[in-house]
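Hi R.,

Here's the chain you asked about this morning:
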Amino acid sequence: MKDEENSAGRHAHKEPDRIAYLVAGYLRQTLSEAEHDELDDWMTARPENQVLFEQLTDPALIGKGFQSRENIDTEGALERVKSKIRLRTRPEKTIKKQRFIRYGIAASLLLLAGTMFFLSRFRNEKPGIAGVTQADIQPGSNTATLSLGNGKIVQLGEAKNGLLDSTNGHEILKTADGQLSYEPNTMEENQVQHVLTTPAGGQYCVRLSDGSRVWLNASSSLTYPASFGKSERIVSLTGEGYFEVVHDDQGEEARKFIVNIRDGGSVEVTGTRFNIMAYDDEVDTRTTLLEGGVIARTKSMTVPMIPGDQTAIARNGIVEKSSGVDTSAVVSWKNGLFEFQNAPIETVMRQVARWYNATIIYEGNVFYHFTATINRHEPVSKLLSLLEATNRVHFRVSGKYIIVTP
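And here is the predicted structure, written out as tokens:
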């Protein structure tokens, strides 16, 4: 055990210098293909490594480092951190705690070693992101358009918080947290259809009259009544939406909640949490169940689902079901993240196009699958630079156009 701890300590001590060298070579565009593969393997090994890579290659952070480099005792700072790692690699109470401490120190040392490496070795060179131009595209925001049954149209991104409309005893509010809320003052049914639409680069959340909530991703639309009737609760979705449906009893039976999607498909529930992706530019419609139970239907098939299941409905109506799906990755968009798991470049760039309101142009073929977790609130340059680190793809940004080349 002692030899293993010493070996782990030596590995933690050596790895930061090696990774710092690889990151510096990436910024200078001097890495060999084998070194690019080595950096790629390290980045995709853990989400923490991807975050650390983003920090090390952030032009703003590096620029600040260069501005203050004359006041930094690089060798002294590095030695102080190295001495800490030697002290902290002593045996702890549990192996889990040992690994956590060693990784945290290695990460800190890597960040410092990388910065020191840049400042001491390349202080006469200005680092830049390979392939990505200085042009940038900002991420999407909380914005949508609400079309009321009376012909009124409300731009929710510009509207003030508070009462937006009141019809037949039903109040429509924009809440302080930037959501849409239907507050029925009576139990009177109101089947007038409202439409909530998010543009490319927009997202929004609505609380329906029964208390169910729906989060809409970019380039999506939800059609629903101002107030549901006493039987079924029916809405229609295009694009992508995450649903939290409340169990709602009316008499002896719970009212079904039905989501109509493209090509005659539907999803039927009583109370549950699930995600539906039904974009027109995707080859199939995918429903992923997080909690409760749903039934995916087509004109010819009925498929019951349990948590962790995902159904893919092709345009010909054929349904395929998978089990044990990583649901957190499916709903990562709702939680402010891009999460790609072995995703082809086309899948990645369709999401980029929707969220950044960009047009994607391909010059040549890119045959590579990407695994990455990235904050959706970063400018597009951060995402593209992370993808470029694989050395399998390059990007140019011109206005709202992103050009993809192998």
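One quick note: The two ends are 46 Å apart (CA to CA).

Cheers,
M.
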